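Please review the protein record below. Tell me whether the encoded fold seems credible here:
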Amino acid sequence: FRRVLFRSSNDAPDLRPPSLVDTIDSLNEWIYTDINNGVYRCGFATTQDAYTQACRSLFAALDRAEALLSSQPYLAGDVLTEADVRLFPTLVRFDAVYYGLFKCNIRHLWDYPSLSAYVRRLYVIPGFGDTSDIEAFKRGYYLGIKRLNPNGIVPIGPDGPGMDFTRIQ
């Protein structure tokens, strides 16, 4: 993964405050490896063993994120950081795309109370929810990856308890 500096204007939040750089880099490392890339390792596994290992690693990382977010609002504590920006896209797509198409189906995101609340909290921040179109995500993945979905069928769901990201708990 590469480090990106997000501070581009005086109005933008500092997503890499100097006091948290080491924490953010550590978070980014396991989030990218075990969650962002973890869903792809599940979806594109070519053996049962590779899939099983990837899926167990993914859900161990989600369990770790759940535990972390059960005691603080953001990954690095009380402030939104680059690590949160890195995690959000995978989580917001999780139940609609990765759970079914990529076989990341041990648990739904809505089965994680802290992760679900976290996604809903981020979703209402400008730049998060207003750039997230669940139906477009589903069409892009389900129609765009013929190897995983040769008939091009786009699911109409899920319509579970965690899919309304605008509702803050």
About this structure: Residues 48-69 form the longest helix (22 residues). The helical segments are 21-36, 38-43, 48-69, 82-98, 113-123, 134-144. The chain has a mean pLDDT of 89.
